[in-house]
Design brief:
The complex is a heterodimer of chains A (about 200) and B (about 220). Chain A folds into 2 domains: about 30 residues; about 160 residues, Jelly Rolls. In chain A, about 25% of the residues lie in helices and about 30% in strands. Chain A is built from 3 helices and 10 strands; from the N terminus they run αββαβββββββαβ. In chain A, the strands form 2 sheets. Chain A has a 6-stranded antiparallel sheet with strand order 1-2-3-9-5-6, with helices on one face. In chain A, strands 8-7-4-10 form a 4-stranded mixed sheet, with no helix packed on it. In chain A, α1 packs across α2. The longest helix of chain A is centred in the first third of the chain and has 30 residues. In chain B, the strands form 2 sheets. Chain B has a 5-stranded antiparallel sheet. Chain B has 2 domains: about 30 residues, no CATH class; about 150 residues, Immunoglobulin-like (Sandwich). The chains are: A alpha+beta (about 200), B alpha+beta (about 220). At the A-B interface, α1, α2, β3, β5 and β9 of A face α2, β4, β5 and β8 of B.
Chain lengths: ~200, ~220
């Protein structure tokens, strides 16, 4: 009987550790990604095989689980940022300056979402800026201020809660460099200006 | 001391071949961690194997039984083989998460059950795209717009090579070689035209362009 009890405990341990560990690690790989499936540039992360028919199972699961419909990453890359340049979580209690510089040859769009990918309601009815709509500084940079209250210039309003910034860049040359591990043009910097 | 004198040899037996001093430190063998001793290495190995199987199974199952892929969400909303124009997204009324706002979308759920599907769509500028997706989200065809140049596309989606014989009835007119044909790897899928809005001044132009976009069953003669 004691041997049977010991066997039962061991089987239970196998089941708990195996199922828990397997599901936990799968969830992490699907939601956060790893070096095999994503590439990061400062606070920005992109899924390397997003939208591609030859995507790996983790990227496919990530796309399906989040209900995404990405364009093939060989043409267009979407970078997501949940933190600022210093690693702090992006949240509406703080104001951020996103400086876009060096993406002149590409078409780009910067949008603010909540963590689940939903648009954040705001009175100004403004949800994104693109290379067509952002005002430029005299030196060609576009500085977009992400803040709850109105700001002069390119103001991207956000409501309460944590924020995810999504930067879409349509540039096949950059996409090729990201896939081959080469260096790319600088992605926008995200600087915290202050918090309430 | 006379240098001519030979150096006295010492008997070999007094200088045995000693091994050089060893740098190895004899470490005390640490016992296995308490938890490993408690459950045993066989149990740990079993848990590892089971974890690997569960990990692979869960990852592969997500696209099949997940909470709702983009196609599943749109399938209920869209009639088959009809282009639906969606105005710029509003909070709470988004088609899909993380979909680029400040853009119009032309969306068509195509079905190749029985015949090919023709698409005609204009791409007015940089940022505009026409993309074709399978129900699993694979983007098997995409064409971007060009800066300050309107591109009027006319494409025909046909069943993939391995299925074309089954799905294309002989009575239907086969697409002529001049028409751009795209072989779809799946019988159903989505056609998405993304039309970014530069500003309110361009709204009329974008709406008029998307009104010309069509997605119709059959091949235009």
């Amino acid at each position: 009987m004691p041997r049977f009890g010991q066997l039962f405990v061991k089987l239970a341990a196998i089941a708990v550790l195996g199922v828990g560990g397997g599901l936990g690690s799968a969830w992490y790989m699907v939601e956060a990604g790893s070096r095999l499936t994503t590439r990061s540039f400062g606070p920005w992360t992109t899924w390397l095989a997003a939208g591609r028919p030859d995507a790996d199972p983790y990227t496919r699961a990530h796309t399906a689980r989040n209900g995404l419909l990405p364009i093939a990453s060989t043409l267009e890359l979407t970078f997501y940022a949940k933190t600022d340049g210093e690693g702090g979580q992006l949240q509406s209690a703080c104001d951020y300056a996103v400086t876009v510089e060096g993406l002149d040859a590409a078409w780009w769009n910067l949008a603010a979402f909540n963590r689940r990918g939903g648009l954040i309601p705001n009175g100004a009815d403004r949800y994104s800026f693109s290379s067509d709509s952002a005002m430029r500084e005299p030196d060609g940079r576009a500085v977009i201020v992400v803040a709850r209250d109105a700001r002069p210039g390119n103001w991207l309003p956000v409501g309460a809660g944590k924020i995810t910034l999504a930067l879409t860049v349509q540039d096949a040359v950059m996409a090729a460099a990201v896939h081959t591990g080469g260096s790319i043009k600088a992605l926008p910097t995200i600087r915290k200006m202050g918090c309430r | 001391m006379n240098p001519r004198l030979p150096t006295p040899m010492l008997p070999q037996s007094r200088w045995p071949n000693l091994a050089p001093p060893s740098l190895r430190v004899n470490r005390v063998q640490r016992p296995a961690p308490g938890w490993l001793r408690k459950i045993g290495w066989r149990t740990a190995l079993g848990a590892l194997l089971l974890g690997g199987i569960v990990h692979l199974g869960a990852t592969l199952a997500v696209p099949l039984i997940g909470p709702g892929s983009a196609y599943q969400k749109l399938r209920e909303l869209l009639p088959a083989n009809t282009m639906v124009v969606v105005a710029p997204l509003q909070p709470g009324k988004q088609l899909l998460p993380f979909l680029m706002p400040d853009a119009y979308y032309g969306v068509c759920r195509y079905s190749l059950a029985g015949e090919a599907v023709s698409i005609s769509a204009p791409l007015l500028d940089l940022g505009w795209t026409l993309s074709l997706h399978t129900p699993h989200g694979d983007n098997f065809y995409v064409i971007p717009g060009q800066q300050l140049r309107t591109t009027d596309l006319a494409l025909v989606i046909v069943p993939g090579a391995e299925k074309s014989g089954e799905l294309m009835p002989a009575t239907r007119r086969a697409p002529t070689p001049s028409e751009d044909q795209i072989a779809s790897p799946s019988e159903e899928g989505l056609i998405i035209i993304r039309a970014p809005l530069k500003g309110l001044a361009w709204k009329g132009e974008v709406e008029a362009a998307l009104a010309r976009a069509k997605c119709t069953p059959g091949v235009k003669s």
